[in-house]
Amino acid sequence: LPHGGVLYELDSAESAQWFSNPANKSKFLEHFGVEVVIKERSFHVLVENVPISFVPDNHAAIDDVEKKAGLKPKTISRARYIKPIARRTPGQRTAHAIFTFSTKEAANQAIKFGLAGSRQKSIW
After folding, report:
1. Does the pLDDT value for residue 71 go beyond 80?
2. pTM to 2 decimal places
């Protein structure tokens, strides 16, 4: 991989389940040195017209989005606006954001139904 990374692809759901146990993950990492980390796979979704009142660094705000969209807790691992706040137009009310999901199912749900649970209703 770029930057010297290594990608391990597991052969089964059982292997992935084994890695989800923190004790097993630590035991595995002991054999590779102190600088090695395991990054969970993530799925990025562009969300248009997010009100600028949404604060992506606020965990409570992300929890609220998950709840209103009918997602499981902690499926949105991160959110950020694409354009820096300093570059917004005066009077701007919405902005595009990238939401990072921990599962492909949650990302697909957000793509299919929006972050509202249905196409007719908005959580914002």
Report:
1. yes
2. 0.76
